[in-house]
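ping. complex inputs:
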Amino acid sequence: MSKKHGLNLSKAEIMEHRLEILYRILPLISVLLLVGLWMIASRDFNADVGSGFPTPAAVWDRTVRLFTRPVKKMNLIMHALVSLRRIGLALAFDWTFGIIFGIIIGWFPKPRAFFTPMFDAFRAVPPLAWIPLITLWFGIGEFPKILIVIFGSLASIVVNVKAGLSAVDKMYLNVGTVFNATPMQTLIKIAIPSSLDAIFAGVRTSTSAAWMVVLAAEMLGADSGVGFLISRGMDSIDMPLVLTGMIAIGIVGAILAILTQFVERLICPWTRKSK
Amino acid sequence: MPMDKKKQVILSLRNISQSFVVKNEVKPAVEDVSLDVYDNEFLVVLGPGHCGKTVLMNVIAGIETPVEGKKYLKGEEIQGNDRRIGMVFQSLNLMPWRTVLGNVEFGLELAGVGKKERRAISQKYIDLVRLTGFEHAYPHELSGGMKQRVGIARAYTNNPEILIMDEPFGALDAQTRYAMEEEVLRIWKEEKRTVVFVTNNIEEAVFLADRIILLSNCPAKVKQVYDLSPLGRPRNLMDSDFLRLRTEISDNTDLAL
Amino acid sequence: MSESPNVMTNEERVAYVQSKRKQTQLRDTMLALIGVMFFFLVWEAVVLTGLVDSKKLCSVLEVFKLFIVKFSDPNPDGALLLVNVWSSLLIALSGFGLAIVIGVPLGWLMGWYKGFDAFMRPIFEIIRPIPPVSWIPLSIVWMGIGLKAKSFIVFFAAFVPCLINSYTGIRQTKEVLKNVGITFGASNFTVFWKVGIPSSLTMAFAGIKVAIGNAWATLVAAEMLAASSGLGYMILMGRSYGRVDLVILGIVVIGLLGVVISALISKCEDFFMGWKRL
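pong. complex structure:
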C-alpha cells in the first residue's frame, strides 16, 4: 500500500502537490521581478551626470568604492559602527532608566497618577520633533545625538513596561498571597517576571525606534554614520551612494530585529510556544 | 451542625458572608456559611454552577476578606492568609516563566528556605506526584493533568495542615479526571493532610469524600452535610450504596443555569 | 436581589464603596495636577532665576503669547500657524489615507490567498526593514519637495503596520467560523469576504492606530528635510533663527494634533466596531 503511494495519488492530491511547488517557486519569481523592475527603472541612468535611477551594478561599484576610497576616512562598516555606537549608548540608558521608571509608574498607583500626564505629553511629541530643540540646547556634537536617540526611543520602552506591570494577572498574585509573599517579593518574584514579555516588546520597539531616529539625526547634521552617507549622497547628487546607504540601513535594521528576538528567546524560553 | 465529637475540629467557619458591590448593587456570593473541618479528613464542598465556591475558598485561604464572619484555626481566630493553609488553584496558576522545579519550590523560596534544603523538599514532592524527570520542563510543555500535579506538589511544599483544592480537575477531560481523582487519594494517603476539595461534579464528590458539604445555588449557603464514612474505601462507582447516595445528592442539588 | 433582609447595610456598603472609589479618584487627579504644576513651576523657576540662558529656554507665557501672535503674524518662518497646520495635515492625511486604502486590502489578500502571499512576501520583507526616513532623498529626486514626495514618505511609514496587522488579523480567523461558511456551501471568496474580513477588523484597527502614530512622526522628519512650509519646517526655522519659543510652540502643537487625531481614530473604531459590544 505505502509503496504504491506515489503512484496512486487522487486528483485532489495531485492538484495540491502542484500548488505546493507553485508556492515554492513564487517567491523566487517575485524577487527576480523586483530585480528586473530595478533594471528597467535604471535604463537611462547616467553615472557622469548623476541623472536617473542608478543601476544595480552602479550601486555595487559605489559600495566597493566606499571601501577603497572611504568618505571622511571611514568605510561603510565604520560608518555603520558609528551609528550603532550611538544607538547602543542611548539604548543602554533607555533600558536601565526606562525599565525602572516603567516599573515604578506601572506598579505603584501614586507615582503613576503623578507622572502619567507629564509622560503622556512627552510621549505625544514625535521623536524627531525633539531634534531642533536638542540641537539648540547642546549643539551638534556626539552627546546631543545620543540624547536625541534617547528622547526618541525612551517612550516606547516605558509604555510597554508600564502596560505590563499595571496588568499583572490576578491569579499569579493570588499564589503570592497564599505563600505569604512580602510586597517586595510580590514585585520582584511575580509582577516583574510575569511582564517580561511586555518588557521585551518594549526592548524590540525601542530598538527599531532608536535606529530610525539615529538616521534622521545623522541626516540632519553629522559627519559620520550611515544617515550621513545618505545625506552626503543627496547633496553631491550621488544616487548610488544613497542606495548603498539605504541597503546598509535595511540590513543593519534587520540584523537588529533578529538579534533582539534571539536574545528574547534566550532569556524567556517559556515564550517559545510548543506547537 | 454535625455533632461528631470523635474527631478534632481543625478549622471552623462561623457565619461567613461575602458579597461584592457591582455598580450600585450588592451581589451576595456567600451567605451565612458555618462549617467545621475535622483533622485529616477529606472534605468535599459540592455546589452547582459557578456560584460562591471559589469565593468561599478564597476566604479560607485569606485571598479575600469576608464582609462578615470569623474563621478559627485550631481554636484561635485567624485573619487574612495563614502559612498553615495551602491551596491548589482552579485555573492552572503555574508561572509560565518558571520550570516545574521552580514552580514547586516557589513557596519555599518566598519563605527564605536555603537552596539546598528547598531543592530536597521540592524533589520529594515532585517524586510524590510522580513528575520525576520533568523537573526542568516548562509548564507549556506539560499536559493538563501534569500541570495539576505540579500545582499539588507546590501546595504541599510549605507543609500546610489544610490543603484547599479548588475545582482542580474542572478543565480536564473525563479520562484524565478519573486518573487524577485516584492520584489525589493516593497522595492524600501517603502524605495525610486535611483536604478541602471543591467540585461541581457529584460523582467526583461521592468518590473522594469522607464528608460532603452541599451548597445551595447563589448565594451559597450550606444546604446539607453528608457523612460518607459508611461507604468505606476504596470506592466502587457501581456499588449500590454509591449509586443510591449519588442519586440522593443529585435530587437535592439546586439546578444551576 | 435588593430584597435581602439587611437592606440598610447594603445601601451603606454601596455608599461606602463609592465614596472610597471617589477618594482614590480625587487623590489621583490631585496628584496629576500637582505633577503638571510642578513641571511648569520648575520650568518657570529655571527661566526666571536665569539658571538657563534665555536663548535656550523661554517662559511658558512667551510660548503662549507667540501662539496667539502666530494666528496673524507669518514671521519668522513665513506662514501663519494655521497655514502650517493645514499643510502638515494635508500631507499626513493623504499619505495615511493612501496607506489604509492600499495596505489593509493587500494585507487581507496576502493573509487569505497562499499564492499571493508567496509572491508578495519577499518583496515586502525586502522593503520593510528600511526606515521610511531613509526614503526621503530618493523621493525628493523622484518627485521634488512638494506634496507628492512628502505624502509618499508618510505613506511608506503608515503602510507597513496597516499591512502587517490586517495580515495577522485575517490569518487568525477561527477555523470554526470558516467551516460554518464552507458547510453552507459558500465559495472561498465569499468566506473571505463575509467571515475573514469582519473577523480581522479589530487587528486592522490596531494597525491603523499604530500607522497614524508612525505617519505623524515621519511627517516631521519629511518636513524638516524637504519642505518650505508645515510644522516641521516651522520648528526647523525656529532653530535656525535661534527662536526657542517657536521651537517649543511647534513641538506642543505637533504633540496636541497627534493626540487629537488618535482620539478621532478611536471614535471611528467605536463607530465601526459597534457590534463588538453586543
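The radius of gyration of chain B is 18 Å.
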